[in-house]
Amino acid sequence: MSDPQIIELINTVQSYNEDGNLLLIEKACEFAKKAHEGQTRSSGEPYYTHPLEVAQILANMKLDDASIITAVLHDTVEDTDATLDDIEKQFSPEVASLVDGVTKLNQIESKTVEGKQAENFRKLVLAMSEDIRVLLVKLADRLHNMRTLNAVGKPHKRKRIARETIEIYAPLAERIGIHKIKEELQDLAFAELHTEARESISKRLTFLRSEGTDIVNRIIKTLSGQANEAGITAEVSGREKTRFSIWKKMQRKNVAFEQLSDIMAFRIMVDTIEQCYHMLGLIHSHYPTVPGRFKDYISTPKTNGYKSIHTTVIGPENQRIEIQIRTNFMHEEADLGVAAHWAYKQGKPTESTTGDMKKFRWLRELLEIIEQDSQAEDFLENTKLELFSEQVFCFTPKGDLIELPAGASSIDFAYAIHSDVGNKCVGAKINGRIAPLSTKLNNGDQVDIQTSKNQSPSPTWERFAATGKAKSHIRRFIRQQQRDQYMELGRAMVVKTFKQEGLDFVEKMLNGLSGQFRVDSIEDIITGVGQGNIVARDVFRAAMPDHQSDQQKRQSDRIEHNIPSIEQYAQKPKTNKGGPMPIKGLIPGMAVHFARCCHPLPGDRIVGIVSTGRGVTVHTMDCDTLENFADTPERWLEVSWGDDQDTPESHVGRILITISNDTGALGTLSNVVSTNGGNITNLKITNRSLDFWDMYIDVYVEDVSHLNNIVAALRTTPEIAEAERSRGR
């Protein structure tokens, strides 16, 4: 053994696990080195260095032998001549099973493009539900790939990888409690996606660091002294918020960098839980607290097992500071998260340990959403709701704790209890008082759900549902209800067409025709007739090709419905490249207008309002104007953005800006917008003062995410005092 990488890995494992099977790990390293011989990475390095780096990341987390060996071998089955049988014979069935799980994910990922990301994520959830160590290896693999992302030559590929990292893998690391990996993944992706914003924040942090070093040291000294006086052995440290978390906070709170008051956070680590609360009492007795900024995650841990006390006070030096108090063991768990279940000192995971992993509420609900959502895109959207969320903690009348994302309503609470409770929900009592189902819940609320066996989900519930689980159940019911109605109508139309030709319709007449109409089943053919996508006479002609019918009537039907003939179905393109992004849920040919009161963009949740003589006006779901139509529900249409995004179209987004009245400020504004892929199409100054100008700018963007990125970039610009999306004027 002469390779420095292998020596380092073996030494790391030996440092925390004297009983580890070092010979087997070394054997795996040599196996991978030989298998990957001749292969290189984008950087030009030998390929085998990558799996060894992945294994080193897991070794630094003190994982078990099987996880380390899996990391070393994770690419062998996919990229070399090695087979799972080889791995099982030379190592163990456990390692072979783990390698198989990671290999399946890699095979999916190698085919992943933007349109397949959702399916990739669905399969990732299924794989990690079987053994969470598959996800641990995958996270380490992604982390090393992100560390070496600069070696990837194509910019669009780097951005795709970074976007997938920040949207999928970093939240998953958060959910299983591995904060160190989460923060590094976020920062590396942030550097690729928003380079200028990250550099701007870095410069400001450097300045604050140089100006505030003495203050930080004095605060640490003061807090340490108070702990010593109380006889508490405490380790006090100060740390900066990460650049990505600062960026997200600027977006979430709609504030500039200078308005953030808690860039620094202080951590106090003690020996026991009792000392945590003792220290909290000392701090609160010495310094005024900031209302609404106290969270006790020790008595009520997060879903990922995270435990700590968070409080914000006006502390020493009259500074507003955030303080975290936890035991040393809690701090270790905060770094390792779910990986602690496979730490060397606990040995091989038992069945009960593996079972505990499956008890994570969020993972169970992701699996349930998979069952509800037939379309991978819906699953991705709904599960992102589960991954990206702060939490509120509410209680049932029996005292059971229900964890929900911030902004959740009684509907979300009902579905969190059980899907049947949500489907049959008719009302709710919050803290003993009857409240609308749309009422947002707060920490500590007691919620009593009222149900009825005659109730079914209402389409309006989706407007105030916040959890992916609730939305998936509501949408599934609506889709099924609509499908049943279309099928009933389609069947009546087909039966009528057959009767006009003197025949009785039987479903088996349509056997073998689904391929001709580009659908999956006979039911889909009948449903398509009801939806107006398929002409009933074309169905008859396909089923009875030798029957003599009125050719002229078939042709007039086709012209009237603007639908291709049966010969054209097989040639019909799936997308309309270059055309505008369609709105789903409208009758073909219906006039569409986008409301100027809210400027809807792709990515916004939208609704259509029917106006006599104007067609349909599309609003965002949160548009205030919708209140004017509350008494006319018959004018509401359920619509959504279409799926064809191969050729992104430009849409106008409006931004409200306060800019300093300095030379070159407008040039900087234009440069920031263009650098982030936007194009200013209109500018209107609404207020001028000696120091600042208020203005609206209209910007061509691809979707709401694109607009949000531009707004966030503007907020990091020193010349821009305020920037926020405008709902129009």
| Secondary structural class | alpha+beta
Count of helices?
27
Low-confidence stretches: 107-115, 342-359, 381-386, 569-581
Measured as a percent range, the helix fraction is 40-55%
Alpha-carbon distance between the termini?
A: 71 Å
> Please, what is the average pLDDT?
78
Coarse shape: globular
What is the total tally of β strands?
A: 20
The oligomeric state of the chains shown is single chain
Keywords, please?
alpha+beta, globular, four-stranded mixed sheet, 729 residues, 27 helices
Q: What is the compact description of this entry?
A:
The protein is of the alpha+beta class and 729 residues long. The chain is built from 27 helices and 20 strands.
Chain-wise SSE layout:
Elements: H1 4-16, H2 22-35, H3 49-60, H4 65-73, H5 76-79, H6 84-90, H7 93-110, H8 117-130, H9 133-147, H10 155-175, H11 179-193, H12 195-229, E1 235-240, H13 243-253, E2 264-270, H14 273-286, E3 295-296, E4 309-314, E5 320-327, H15 328-336, H16 351-357, H17 361-372, H18 376-387, E6 391-395, E7 401-405, H19 410-417, H20 419-423, E8 425-430, E9 433-435, E10 447-451, H21 468-500, H22 522-531, H23 536-543, H24 551-561, H25 566-569, E11 583-584, E12 592-594, E13 606-611, E14 615-620, E15 636-637, E16 640-641, E17 651-660, H26 665-675, E18 679-688, E19 692-701, H27 704-715, E20 720-725
Parallel strand pairs: 2-5, 12-14
Antiparallel strand pairs: 1-2, 3-4, 4-5, 6-7, 8-9, 8-10, 11-16, 13-14, 13-15, 17-19, 17-20, 18-19
Helix pairs in contact: 1-2, 1-3, 2-4, 3-4, 3-9, 4-7, 4-9, 6-7, 7-8, 7-9, 8-17, 8-18, 9-10, 9-11, 10-11, 11-12, 12-13, 13-27, 17-18, 17-21, 18-21, 21-22, 21-23
